[in-house]
């Protein structure tokens, strides 16, 4: 008996199994891929090592060694041990890497680019340091006395028209104070200069021709007396006013050339020459030294001038003449004499 075919509306029991199997395969594949991803080994790291020596082969311990990598995280530092050996382990393969070495007393050393292979043990060859060239700079520092001595040596060569002494003028823009020894040196230099004797002789001849100091009379004896009196005047004036008192009062006996400013400013500056002097402290002070020189020379002249030419009156007359002469000298110094003094023309 044939049974009729009855189409039942029911699910295929094998269909869920196929889907389940497919899902199982996909899950297994995903798990396998994940397992492979997790278990995949990192690239094997390597090491970079080396020994630091000098050019001659001596070991250099304690050097600072820096490994410079492609990124900030790859930079590391080591210190060479007592054998000059350094090492960087666990270094990622790749690069470029550089080794930089610094050691006291040696020139900085840097390697060429290094590329590290996985697991490589790389020894940096020929890490040899060169001794640094020691450059010693010697600064010659001169004392104030040495500088002042040099200035005086320059001033002693200053001569108007090449032969008339012009020792007591400062053209240097930054002079230093003179020591007492240098003040006496300048005075002695002027007093023994041949032009000083020639000048005294010229003045004596003029006085004798004009009949000055008549008690001396005429003739060679009178001329000699006048020369001696003139030299004695100058000697006492210079020694007291330009050496002794400046040393005691710490004042500078020289004229400080101005050279800048208007004509009026320079003239007033020059006319103040007999009234003030530069102190050794660099400040202007009353010209006690010169005044003492004028008065002292006048007072001492009473010892050798004829009796009629002695007394207080000649002393104060000499003081007035000295002040006027110093003022005139300042104006001449400021506007004329530098142009006539060859060695002073090129001074700054």
> Unreliable runs, pLDDT <50, ≥5 residues?
1-40
Topology as H/E string? Answer: HEEEEEEEEEHEEEHHHEHEEHHH
Give the overall form. Answer: rod-shaped
Mean model confidence by pLDDT: 85
Radius of gyration: 50 Å
Strand content: 15-25%
Give a written overview of the molecule.
With 348 residues, the chain is an alpha+beta fold. It folds into 2 domains: 46-129, Immunoglobulin-like (Sandwich); 144-345, no CATH class. Helices cover 44% and strands 17% of the residues. It is built from 9 helices and 15 strands. It has helices at residues 14-39, 144-155, 180-191, 194-210, 220-249, 263-271, 288-301, 312-340, 342-345; strands spanning 46-54, 64-68, 76-79, 85-91, 94-102, 109-110, 114-116, 121-123, 127-129, 159-160, 164-165, 169-170, 255-256, 276-278, 284-286. A hairpin with a 6-residue loop joins strand 5 and strand 6. The chain starts with 13 loop residues before the first helix and ends with a helix. The model is unreliable at 1-40 (pLDDT under 50).
Per-chain topology:
Layout: H1 14-39, E1 46-54, E2 64-68, E3 76-79, E4 85-91, E5 94-102, E6 109-110, E7 114-116, E8 121-123, E9 127-129, H2 144-155, E10 159-160, E11 164-165, E12 169-170, H3 180-191, H4 194-210, H5 220-249, E13 255-256, H6 263-271, E14 276-278, E15 284-286, H7 288-301, H8 312-340, H9 342-345
Parallel strand pairs: 1-8, 1-9, 12-13
Antiparallel strand pairs: 1-4, 2-3, 2-5, 5-6, 5-7, 10-11, 14-15
Helix pairs in contact: 3-5, 4-5, 5-7, 6-8, 7-8
Task: Note the main attributes of this structure.
348 residues, alpha+beta, Immunoglobulin-like, 2 domains, five-stranded antiparallel beta sheet, four-stranded mixed beta sheet, 9 helices, 15 strands, 44% helix, disordered N terminus
């Amino acid at each position: 008996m044939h049974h009729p075919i009855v189409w039942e509306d029911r699910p295929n029991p094998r269909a869920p199994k196929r889907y389940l199997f497919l899902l199982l395969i996909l899950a297994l594949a995903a798990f396998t891929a994940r397992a492979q991803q997790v278990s995949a080994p990192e690239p094997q790291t390597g090491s970079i090592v080396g020994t630091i020596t000098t050019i001659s082969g001596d070991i250099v311990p304690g050097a600072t060694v820096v490994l410079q990598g492609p990124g900030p995280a790859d930079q590391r530092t080591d210190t060479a041990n007592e054998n000059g050996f350094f090492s960087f382990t666990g270094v990622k393969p790749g690069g470029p890497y550089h080794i930089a070495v610094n050691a006291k007393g040696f020139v900085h050393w840097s390697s060429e680019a290094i590329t590290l292979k996985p697991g490589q043990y790389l020894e940096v060859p020929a890490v040899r340091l060169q001794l640094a060239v020691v450059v010693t700079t010697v600064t010659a520092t001169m004392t104030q006395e040495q500088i002042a001595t040099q200035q005086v040596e320059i001033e002693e060569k200053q001569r108007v028209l090449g032969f008339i002494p012009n020792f007591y003028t400062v053209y240097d823009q930054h002079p230093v104070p003179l020591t007492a020894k240098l003040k006496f040196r300048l005075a002695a230099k002027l007093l023994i200069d041949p032009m000083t004797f020639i000048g005294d002789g010229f003045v004596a001849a003029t006085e004798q021709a004009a009949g000055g100091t008549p008690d001396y009379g005429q003739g060679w004896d009178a001329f000699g007396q006048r020369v001696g009196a003139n030299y004695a005047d100058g000697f006492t004036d210079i020694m007291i006013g330009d050496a002794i008192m400046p040393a005691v009062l710490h004042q500078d006996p020289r004229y400080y050339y101005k050279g800048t400013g208007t004509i009026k400013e320079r003239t007033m500056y020059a006319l103040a020459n007999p009234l003030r002097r530069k102190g050794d402290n660099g400040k202007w002070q009353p010209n006690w030294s010169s005044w003492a020189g004028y008065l002292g020379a006048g007072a001492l002249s009473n010892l050798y001038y004829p009796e009629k030419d002695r007394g207080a009156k000649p002393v104060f007359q000499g003081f007035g003449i000295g002040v006027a002469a110093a003022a005139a000298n300042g104006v001449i110094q400021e506007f004329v004499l530098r142009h006539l003094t060859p060695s002073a023309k090129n001074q700054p």
